[in-house]
Amino acid sequence: MDTLKLKRIAIDTYKENVVYLHRECDIYQSQGFQALNKIEVYTDTPPTQVFAVLNVVDGECIIAPGEIGLSEQVFKQFNQPEGSPIKVRHATQPKSLSYVHRKISGDRLNYAEYLEIIQDISANRYSKIEITAYLVGCAESEMDREEVLYLTQAMVNTGERIDWNGAMVADKHCIGGIPGNRTSLLIMPIVAAYGLLIPKTSSRAITSPAGSADTMEALANVELDIAQLKQIVKQHGGCLAWGGTAKLAPVDDILITVERPLSMDSPGQMVASILSKKMAAGVTHLIIDIPVGPTAKMHSYSKATKLRKLFEYVGDNLGLHLEVIMTDGKQPIGAGVGPNLEARDIMRVLENDPQASKHLQEKALQLSGRIIELDNKVRAGQGYAIARDILQSGRALEKFNAILDAQGRNPNPITFGALTYDVTAPKTGTVSAINNFVVAHIARLAGAPIDKGSGLYIHKKLGDRVVQGEPLYTIYAEFEADFKFAQNAAALDSGFEIHNSESVNTL
Questions:
Q1: Cβ atoms 310, 421 nearer than 8 A
Q2: Contact, 241 vs 247, CB < 8 A?
Q3: What are the tens digits of pLDDT across the range 142-198?
Q4: Could you report the per-residue pLDDT of 372-392, keeping only the tens digit for each?
Q5: Domain 419-499 has CATH 3.30.70.20
Q6: What percent of the chain has pLDDT over 70?
Q7: What residue spans of 79-202 are helical by DSSP H?
Q8: Which distant-in-sequence residues (6+ apart) come within 8 Å of 106 by Cβ?
Q9: CA triple 18-20-25, angle to 5 deg
Q10: Roughly what angle, to the nearest 10 degrees, separates helices 383-392 and 184-194?
Q11: Active site residue 375
Q12: Closest among 162, 426, 377, 265 to 386, alpha carbons compared
């Protein structure tokens, strides 16, 4: 017997193709397969081919010896009904792995080699271990600016692209690293209400407690295909969608699944990730926000300047009008840290609520104004006032609500973790420093972004006076284990420094 009967295994292996064979399967034993081997699953009629990692099982409650089990991801790709005859064979190691080995050794790769690597990753010919080797090779050996350009072009050319027929298409992207920095959800409706197209595609969190897509998902559906995305933007001027569903530079989302648990975010991969998504979305004018601060991704202006030049070089060679803005990264931006807490911040700003975070509002207006000034009909310096008027008049809220309805409003109310704990000031004084990394780490320990109601709500910012025992921030968690992890971490290091002096640099 050279065929196996297809069985659907209802397991979500998230971005990794996995198939299952019984240890007593004749084909498994005769062909010398081993667990975690890459194998090729195929049919001759119709011609179908999928590469996957093999898992071996012993219990017939999962798979019988004459069957092959396909995880949810593989089953969708294979697109054959259960019971279909399936063949398997050893997968040939992709030639592009030799390029990865060269990169690990410190060699420089050309465009054709990066393209082949990205195409093989897109075709699921790399295991997670092999993707890790690629990412570590690029991070440790670094990439020169031409290599970053090649990688970006390769990522754009392995996915779909949107053509807006010559229209000016604007966007803004922050490199991340600052908790609560959800300005995109405010900029998008302000700019769309002004009249520019802003098809905002965002990734989910990599190393942070929430990405823009995670926060938007608390309010509306973010899994839009390209047809839906185009329709919404043509009708309303903007949207905020997760880039993975739209298949724009899809390899980026595969790479993120490996980068996230490793907390990797190297400059070359970061630039390629951001710009490939923007080019695929048809963006013509882009603002890049690089926060600078002691505990931001960019600790100094010299490092930020180096990254700015890399963005500008790649953007120029892609034909993208790109401007980089360096912003204050010494502390979290809004009050909420975590998807639902950040979503509440967004709605408070849009609703002109007295409790709205002024810090978040001000940064969103500054960046919105810069984007509006990309329109040659607007004089330099006028953008901020235009953005402020759009927000204060309620036009931004009206536009945001229309976009939420178009994307599919989340019917569930915004809720927060039932387990709460106040982290208090150990002494009376002034908040002199806030560690972004520690704040983000505690929020992630509390369960964010997986548990959308988990995270932190920050009560005090730089320069604020505090009395001993007064809450600095509140931890929210949904599960007892996460709650204890976050509490214990905050007890070791709250992330806040309190000085008796009132002389604190908040600029």
A1: no
A2: no
A3: 899 999 999 999 999 998 889 999 889 999 999 988 999 999 999 999 999 999 999
A4: 999 999 999 999 999 999 999
A5: no
A6: 98
A7: 97-104, 111-122, 128-141, 145-156, 184-194
A8: 141
A9: 150
A10: 100
A11: no
A12: 377
Task: Output the six-digit token pair for 493.
Answer: 């290091």
CATH topology for the 4-90 domain:
Barwin-like endoglucanases (2.40.40)
Q: How far is it between the farthest Cα atoms of the chain?
A: 81
DSSP state of 197: B
CB 507 within 8 A of CB 328: yes
The 10s digit of each residue's pLDDT in 292-317 is 999 999 999 999 999 999 999 999 99
Helices 358-372 and 383-392 meet at what angle, rounded to 10?
130
Least confident among 42-56, 77-91, 246-260, 283-297 = 246-260
Are the beta carbons of 187 and 367 closer than 8 angstroms?
yes
Question: In the 8-state DSSP scheme, what is residue 220?
Answer: B
Residue with tokens 């890459």: 38
Question: Taking a C-beta distance cutoff of 8 angstroms, is the pair 215, 200 a contact?
Answer: no
Characterize 413-425 residue by residue with b for buried, 16 or more Cβ atoms within 10 angstroms of its Cβ, and e for exposed: eeebbebebebbb
Q: How confident is the model at residue 104 (pLDDT cuts 50, 70, 90)?
A: very high
Note the pLDDT tens digit of each residue in 385-419. Answer: 999 999 999 999 999 999 999 999 999 999 999 99
Q: What CA–CA distance (Å, rounded) separates 373 from 379?
A: 7
Q: Is cis: bond before 449, omega within 30 of 0?
A: yes
Fold for domain 170-246+265-407? Pyrimidine Nucleoside Phosphorylase; Chain A, domain 2 (3.40.1030)
What is the residue extent of each domain of the chain? 4-90, 97-142, 170-246+265-407, 419-499
Q: Active-site residue among 171, 252, 253, 265? A: 265
